[in-house]
Amino acid sequence: MKDTVKKSKYQTFIGLEVHIHLITESKVFCGCKNVFGSEPNTNVCPVCMGYPGVLPSLNEEAVRKAYQVAMALNCHLNEKAVFERKNYFYPDMPKNYQISQFEFPFGIDGSFDLELMDGSTRKIRIHDVHLEEDAGKMIHEGSRSKLDYNRAGTPLLEIVTEPDLASGEEAEAFVQQFRQMVRYLGVTDGNMEEGSLRCDANVSINEHGKGLGTKTECKNLNSSRFVKKALEYEIKRHTKVLSSGDEIIQETRLWDEGSSRTSSMRTKESSNDYRYFPEPDLPPYWPEEKFLDEIKNSLVELPGAKKERIINQYGINQQLVVFLTSEKAMAEFFEEVVKLGKGDKGITTTVASWLGGNVQKILNDNGLEIESSPLSPKRLLSILNMIETDKISSGIGKKVLGLVFEKNSDPEEIVKELGLDEGPNDDEIVKIVSDIVDTNPKVADAVRAGEDKQIGFLMGQVMKATSGKANPGKTQKLIREKILKQG
Ligand code: ADP
Ligand code: ZN
Ligand code: MG
Prior knowledge:
Oligomer: single chain
Shape: elongated
Bound molecules: adenosine-5'-diphosphate, zinc ion, magnesium ion
Helix content: 40-55%
Strand order of the largest sheet: 2-5-6-9-1-10-11-12-13
Number of helices: 15
Largest sheet: 9 strands, mixed
Order of helices and strands: EHEEEEEEEEHEEHEEEHHHHHHHHHHHH
Strand content: 15-25%
Number of strands: 14
Distance between the termini: 53 Å
Structural class: alpha+beta
Radius of gyration: 30 Å
């Protein structure tokens, strides 16, 4: 069949502005606590409340984390970084300006290797990485609005991409992969629901070869799926407008998840309106070489590199590696089990598939993270060893895993305590198999007639009768012998 999908007349350009909340003890320019979920207006002081006559002082931990991200994004680090005031009025910003960076941010001209659906990668250019302070939070209740300034002055890192993304799907992938990277770095928890990672999505379309079009911006998207949906909506809208000969108005729009559409919020201000000027209360920041070297040397292995190394080192299939490297803690857990198990090839695949299967399911069901769960690398290894040495079946192993989570005790202890390793002896199994085949003559006939799958039913009955303790290989052999003997 011929390709019936008509290639769009338009080319799409998307640039993202991603904001991440940095994990620090205190806010970026004062000593107030930087935590989520406190009683409203309890983490505030004259500095973050914008009282007159106070002086900001820069939090070095926030700077360190900003550089980590800038380095991970292969940015050029400005020799001199400058904080500037971005002036605007809004009740959630008590100072009426936000301290940010404009002309000389910490990092510029970086790149991010975006992994595409077909497995290839494409470089997405990073315009800049800059540090700023977050605003407070407005809570609207009917006709009243309340203000909580706990968030005002918390460190926010903004990463601005060039308009190199070409579809809603690519933008979604960027947000997901970028989130994974900054979680690896440990600079943010990246929790989109709590607003620790927020995204503004800019999009324009234009006829092929004509360069950028007039853009619109969708503000404050707090899920990667919304990024995709909002952009796809906007691309359709732009296409319709331009196809009918009208023009796109450059503006800021809001995504409404309920109605699955965007609506105009305000016609877009330009940076002139903010009247940026250097913050007079903070000197320009000249990073010391030693400080930067130390940060560079402590950078962790990033997801892409880790994935490639694990594939090469352990020969595990792509799908499992994607799972293992989704979180740094999971990859580390895997490597620890393999190390403890002396790393023979057999065990690496078993460990990986247990983590991706049974373990992952229990973690999901209980809303747990591997690093804070009752399962340790040593405990998982001992379950796998008991299975490997036929002390328990893999079915029992799964049960033991569940009990490790329930009781938070060692697998050997659980097995001993519940007598899970005392399977039936050979004579007992022969007897059980014989009884089960006898009470299911039709199934036995079917197996004899070549319906080999039916043997699974008999296996199941034996396992039930022995609480899963019968050795599966031996049981199947005995069932076959018994059926053939009858035939
Ligand atoms: P503004 O001055 O409106 O904030 P910037 O030039 O700072 O615009 O860019 C903000 C974001 O918008 C960046 O991510 C950039 O890649 C993206 N962007 C800029 N112009 C366009 C365009 N014409 N089409 C799509 N995205 C764009
Ligand atoms: Zn404060
Ligand atoms: Mg801008």
